[in-house]
Amino acid sequence: MSRSDTFGTAFFVYDKEVKIPKGIKYVIGIDEAGRGPLAGTVSVGAACFFASDIRRFKKFSAGVKDSKKLSEEKREEWFAKMEREVTLGKFSFAVSFSSSVVIDNRGLSFAIRSALAKSIKKLSCPPESTLVLLDGSLYAPEEYIFQKTIIHGDDIEPIISLASIAAKVFRDRKMYALAKKYPEYCFEKHKGYGTKGHYQAIERYGILEGVHRKSFLH
Q: What is the pTM assigned to this prediction?
């Protein structure tokens, strides 16, 4: 049975009829951040709620959006809400990273798969009772037979949106730390993306070993 065939036409989005496969106890959403920058890690966020608490989750997640459509202030607000929900034992999330060195040596796809596997493992949800929803072109490890990859999932599935927020917030914090260490590169402004100012800094100060993705720079 293929990943998509597991659900058939019964698959759901949360603003419509909810249909979760029988025996599912956990629902995990997964998304990544930092696919395109010239510098820094790629991060993968995984967020989880109890399938039996779906009404509570719908109320908690109402109004959430893809992290790319939120201001930094709004992302931090949602992140604080997520942390509060964690303390109540009703929600959990994890974020893992792959470095620029891994990206250069093994490729971006490998780096994302590696970080994804680490994040989902941190949640300690048994594969046979877990539904995994993933954004874009992502896939969970094969032992998670109940999984669905959703185009624009970070925009239409709240649990994926929350995973994207976790991934983005954690990655941005890493870039702020790099900005303090290497202030001349202004990582706090562009977060490692290929802005004009970032290219100018590279031309002036050179490539940072272990920080810049050499395979992204030609």
A: 0.92
